[in-house]
Design a protein that fits this description.
Strand content: under 5%
Helix content: 55-70%
Structural class: mainly alpha
Number of helices: 8
Shape: globular
Oligomer: single chain
Distance between the termini: 26 Å
Order of helices and strands: HHHHHHHH
Length: about 130
């Protein structure tokens, strides 16, 4: 899976996605990620990980960042500036983000991979927290 922890930004896929986000302007990249999740029948782990990252950024833009962003984990380097630049934007994407996170929790390869690990409950707690911050 390329993950070394249960945190939202603790896997290779989302770090690659984050690098693209930082180079992007506006929220179109986040919107594209979430729309792809909604359009797919089955979510592969990489897409689901990217979407969770996108949803975390949306929550932070609304003033509700998660622990990784609050604690300025090394994995979120560069995001603080991007979030400051776009703060308050993205409210119109929240309904799509809510659908996407429900889909990830219900039927995704990411969920299945975490279910097979001893850290599933920790991961699910993080995802539930994210969903509640939307």
């Amino acid at each position: 899976m390329g993950a070394w922890g249960t945190g939202i930004f603790e896997n290779d896929d989302v770090l690659d996605w984050k690098a693209e986000l930082i180079e992007s302007e506006g929220l179109e990249f986040i919107n594209e990620t979430l729309e792809t999740v909604i359009d797919e029948d089955y979510l592969e782990a990489d897409l689901a990980s990217n979407a969770v990252g996108a949803i975390e950024i949306l929550a932070a833009l609304q003033g509700k960042p998660g622990e990784e962003l609050k604690n300025e984990s090394s994995y979120v380097e560069g995001l603080k500036e991007w979030i400051e630049l776009h703060k308050g934007q993205g409210k119109s994407l929240l309904p799509v983000a809510k659908k996407a996170i429900k889909k990830i929790k219900k039927d995704s390869e990411l969920k299945e991979l975490w279910e097979e690990s001893e850290d599933y409950k920790t991961w699910l707690k993080i995802i539930n927290d994210l969903e509640n911050r939307l």
